[in-house]
Each structure stands twice: as C-alpha cells, then as structure tokens.
Amino acid sequence: MMSELQVHTVARQMLERHGFAAIAKAAEQAQACEGRGEADEAKEWRHIEDAMKIMRGPALS
User: Fold this and answer.
1) 3 state DSSP class of 58
2) Which of 23, 55, 29 is nearest to 44 (CA)?
3) In sequence order, what are the residues at sequence separation of 6 or more whose Cβ sits closer than 8 angstroms to the Cβ of residue 18?
4) Which of 5, 21, 37, 41 is most buried, by the most CB atoms less than 10 A from its CB?
5) How many Å is the Cα radius of gyration of the chain?
6) CA-to-CA distance for 35 and 58, rounded, in angstroms?
7) Residue 20 in 3-state DSSP?
8) How far is the C-alpha of 13 from the C-alpha of 15, rounded, in Å?
9) Predicted confidence band at 60 (pLDDT cuts at 50, 70, 90)?
10) pTM for this structure?
11) In this predicted model, which residue has the larger pLDDT, 56 or 8?
C-alpha cells in the first residue's frame, strides 16, 4: 500500500505530465485493475484520482 505522501507525489507528477487528462488516466487504470480482480491496486488508483481532483480545485461552472 502506498503512503499518503507517495499518493500525492504520484498525483502531482501525473498532473505535471498529462494535465487534467491525468485524472481520466487514473480512472482508466483503476477500472483496468478492477477488471483483472486487483482490488488493492484499483483502490490505490482511485486514491490517486481523488488526490488529483483535490489538487485541481473546485470545478468551474
């Protein structure tokens, strides 16, 4: 299991590399892991996805 610091580090790096498309990439990774029955990995990707959403800030309407 990743530490909270690791989750935020990965989230930040993904956002720097891919912009806000990184959130969708993390969601795709989580779904792929779920499809393979890798629940723990999927949970980590969901955690990374959530961290990126927090870093993005509130959505504009």
Assistant:
1) coil
2) 29
3) 25
4) 41
5) 11
6) 30
7) coil
8) 5
9) low
10) 0.89
11) 8
Give me the residue label for tokens 């935020």: 8
- Cite the beta strand spans of the chain per DSSP E: none
What does the pLDDT read at residue 56?
87
Q: Which of 52, 57, 56 is nearest to 28 (CA)?
A: 52
Greater pLDDT, 20 or 30: 30
Q: How many Å apart are CA 41 and CA 21, to the nearest integer?
A: 20
Under 8 Å CB-to-CB from 11, ≥6 apart: which residues? 22, 26, 48, 51, 52, 55
* Pair of tokens at residue 57: 């800030």
